Amino acid sequence: MTSNSIGFYVFRAINVAADFLNEYDIRTGFEEEDKKTHYLLKEMLEYTQKNCDFPFRENEFFNDLTKKDIKLQIEKYIANITQIMDCVECEKCRVHGTLQIFGIGFLE
Fold first, then answer.
1. Burial letters for 19-50: b for 16+ Cβ neighbours within 10 Å, e otherwise?
2. Residues ≥6 apart with Cβ < 8 Å to 97
3. In whole angstroms, what is the distance from residue 50 CA to residue 22 CA?
4. Any idea what DSSP says for residue 52?
5. Which of 1, 56, 87, 106 has the highest CB neighbour number within 10 Å of its CB?
């Protein structure tokens, strides 16, 4: 999969979330920055909707891979994230993060 096709899938995913993003209340405490961010967000949404007008379909994203390949890839990502979580110093944070990752892994 090329970086261009990945960008295309990102555009499609943004389009799926467009309603949520349009309604999102941006408040950082800096009114001018909030206005600028809201304007840029609307510009991005207009661009993605103009250049990619159909929604994201996951089955197309994974069409080159078999279910076994996808499962192995997800297991590899989860193992990598778990190793990173082992480096977190706060024990409660480490345990909580690891449990969340195992939960995601169980869902797959």
1. eeeeeeeeeeeeeeeeeeeeeeeeeebeebee
2. 85, 88
3. 15
4. -
5. 56
Question: Could you give the angle at the alpha carbon of 77 between the alpha carbons of 73 and 83, nearest 5°?
Answer: 145
Amino acid at 11: F
- Is residue 101 within 8 Å of residue 78, measured between CB atoms? yes
**DSSP code of 62?**
T
**pLDDT per position as a tens digit, 4-51:** 555 666 777 788 788 888 888 888 888 999 899 889 988 988 888 887
The pLDDT tens digits for 71-89 are: 787 788 778 887 887 787 8
Residue type, 105: G
**Which residue's structure tokens are 């990752």?**
101
pTM beyond cutoff 0.85: no
